[in-house]
Each structure stands twice: as structure tokens, then as C-alpha cells.
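P.,

For your records, the input lines for the assembly:
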Amino acid sequence: RKEVEQDPGPFNVPEGATVAFNCTYSNSASQSFFWYRQDCRKEPKLLMSVYSSGNEDGRFTAQLNRASQYISLLIRDSKLSDSATYLCVVNRDDKIIFGKGTRLHILP
Amino acid sequence: NAGVTQTPKFRVLKTGQSMTLLCAQDMNHEYMYWYRQDPGMGLRLIHYSVGEGTTAKGEVPDGYNVSRLKKQNFLLGLESAAPSQTSVYFCASRGEVPPSYNEQFFGPGTRLTVL
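C-alpha cells returned:
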């Protein structure tokens, strides 16, 4: 079993819709959690950290469920510019483990 | 600040040739990483460093060597390139203390083709 697992998609979503991704992690010792965004042929960039209490940044909401070992990302009122691959990232000690990513296509 | 830079951006090699990829960061970060990214495989860690003069193996280290002689530079070497090493290579760095501890900053990538 991979340490970090994501649905690869693609998710094809009409503009303005709400879309949610989940990511599961297998090691309960994982310490911190993030969502990164990667545009086609570009480097990954931090989208947001994920806290146990849940956190929101504009149209984006991230949640962490330690008991069930998953994190989620919700995008409201999706824009064409949200089309990208979203990477779930888990830190444990010095290790940083990336999921393979979920591809999102926002349709006009 | 330039952030994380990578040299070269593109390279084509023949099987058996050698090359070195250079990663440089100007954020005084302790940690540096080399990843490769292949279609359907996600990012895979090749080697990493937790400080100047240190290196450690990641998930897929075979066929690669690294050096961290200066804090700001992390070099990735291919001694005898193979077609299986055709990939996009990303370098990343992160700091030792919050807030920069939590975020990895990536370079723009090097696209390597081995014929």
C-alpha cells in the first residue's frame, strides 16, 4: 500500500461547480499535511497547509481527519484557472511524501 | 530573491554519457531534495540533504550521485546515462524552522532525454 494515496482523476467539472478531493495516508506518525498545486509542465507550488481544525483560504477549504487518516480539499465556485494537478503531501520526520496527484479539468 | 534555480533547463544525452544537474537556492535553507517525475508515477525522491556536507538516499537512488559541498548548492550526477533516466528532474529546498520548515520550494525543473 502506498503511504499517500489519491484518486488520479481526471475530475471534469463545469465552471462554477464545487469539487472535493480526498487523500489517505497510511502512517499514523505523519506530522504535517499540505496540498500542492502543479500546472502542466511546471513545478509544484504550495497551495495550503492542512490543520486539524480545518482551514480556509478564499474558495479553498482543507480538512484533516487524523482518526481516519485522510485529508480533503474543497474548491468552491471553481474557475477555469483552477485546472491543474493537486498533490497531497505528508511530512514525517525529515521525509516528505507526495501523492501522485489528482487531475482537475474545469470545463467552460 | 531568485528562490530555487536549476541548470540546465533541457538536455539530451546519449546512452553512457555523463552529466551534472545543478540546483542553487538563495534562501539559506538547510534541506535540499532531488526528485524525478514521470507520467503516472508522481514525484519520486532520488536523494536529499539535511545540511551542508550531508546526503542521503531517497526512494530511487540507483544510477545517481549527489554532493552538497556548499549549503546553497545541491548537485545531481548521472555517471552513465540510461534511457530509463529520461524524466523531468525537480530540485526543492526547505528551511529548518517554521514557517519555511513546512513549505518546499521547487525549482522550474530540468527536462532530460536519454537516447
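Two observations worth noting. The mean pLDDT of chain B is 93. Residues 87 and 114 of chain B are 9 Å apart (CA to CA).

Regards
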